[in-house]
Amino acid sequence: MAEYRTTQELMEQYPVRTLVLRLGLPAMIGQVFNLLYSIVDRIFVGRIPGTGEQALAAIGICAPALTAITAFAYMVGIGGASLMSISLGQGNQRRAEQTLGNAFWLLAGIAVAVTAALLPLRRPLLYLLGCSDALFPYADAYFTLYLLGTLASLMGVGMNQFLLAQGYARQGMIAVVLGALANLVLDPVLIFGLHLGVRGAAAATVLSQCLMAVYVLLCLRRPRMPVRLRLHRLQPDLCRRIVAIGSMSFLITLLDNLIIILLNIVLRRYGGAQGDAWITCATVVQSFLTIVFCPSQGITTGCGTLFSYNYGAAREKNVRQAFLWVFVLCGAYIGLMELAVQLAPAWFAGLFLREASLLQMASLCLRRYTLGLFGVAVQYALVDSLTAMGKVRFAFPLSIFRKLLYILCLLVLPRLGGAAAVFYAGSISDLLGATFSAVVFFAVVWPRLRREIRGRTAAKPCQNGPERV
């Protein structure tokens, strides 16, 4: 591949379908390695002699809170990177640099505030998330150490979005791979070698996140970076625009976490004496979904600059082609994963569990939950791409409809079939949510978006370069 020095040069060198592969695949691979942060922790923790099942369930209890913390990184990262790319598409280099500098300060301030707020509240928070007395010691140990690494976590994840947005998908991938490999090496050493148990898993994750953050910040400081990290004066108006665009990702992540909390509460209520076992199965299901969702999000995040830049440059045909090829790539991956889990659910469950009865329960839950998984490809291709263009008012209803369906299923299904029936909620919401999103997008959203882009093209014809498809 030829070298480029600006995002504009990258966009002019290749057709859209090539850029989707060039930007999306490295980001996808990076997210595959990013899975190792949580998946490897759970695999090793699940094999701690005597207490592995309890420790694994405790990590599942912590997961919503930890994901909510990471949501701040994506809020600033996706919002800032989208605004930066739109600015570059409009030819405003100075605004792009200011956006990057302000995003750095936002992430630092949020990290300090979150750590200070949650450390003293961790006990009531964990019980609110569905923790039991038996699980609390493990959950508290993991959650406390993870909180202490919040600054590194937010910096690594959030600032990496700006590498991806400038077309440096390979460097973004390397950042994640470095952290994931460090976690893979440190986990067995700290968990088993130093006998730290679940504390070792948390410590390994924090140290790995520190390594990732350092690498990302050094990359963004390189002189050759098209938009280089400089500590610009904090601009409240610009920060509000970053948060406004990124709020879609943040709110949806928070809602996802509330859904997981509700799922744990429902399973404990209707699971009876097997409440902890059902929560363990739910943790296995969520772990598998992470294997599906993280790489898919890597594709849409890596390709986000395609939508942001071409929307800013008012290139309708490029935006339309980007929608198509992102869906094709996401659909191919998610379809393959759905087929694999339906054919071999016990293999995936066996990554986390050893006890035979739990393994059988988790396998059944995986099959029920993933019958409509392909519908998620529609959601990612539409919702994340619209968010990258700053079209939160279009993206939010498409995403929220699926979430509300899921909540409705959580409230109704256990009354009909007990705790086991809860695991059909994912399939029902995925299928109906995808149908709703496709109909609304083609009937309402795309015609409006097309008229807006054509209006700007007619108003400023000289600013648009050639379209590449």
TrEMBL record:
UniProt entry keywords in alphabetical sequence: Cell membrane, Membrane, Transmembrane, Transmembrane helix, Transport
Q: Does the keyword Acetylation apply?
A: no
Q: Does the record's keyword annotation contain Zinc?
A: no
Q: Which residues cross the membrane?
A: 20-40, 55-88, 100-121, 141-165, 172-194, 200-221, 242-267, 287-311, 323-349, 369-392, 404-425, 431-449
What is an example of a Pfam family matching this protein? MatE
Report the GO terms under cellular component: plasma membrane
Q: Where in the cell is it found?
A: Cell membrane
Membrane topology, record value: Multi-pass membrane protein
Alphabetically, the GO molecular function entries are:
antiporter activity; xenobiotic transmembrane transporter activity
User: NCBIfam families annotated for this entry?
Assistant: matE
Could you tell me what this protein is called?
MATE efflux family protein
Annotated source species? Subdoligranulum variabile DSM 15176
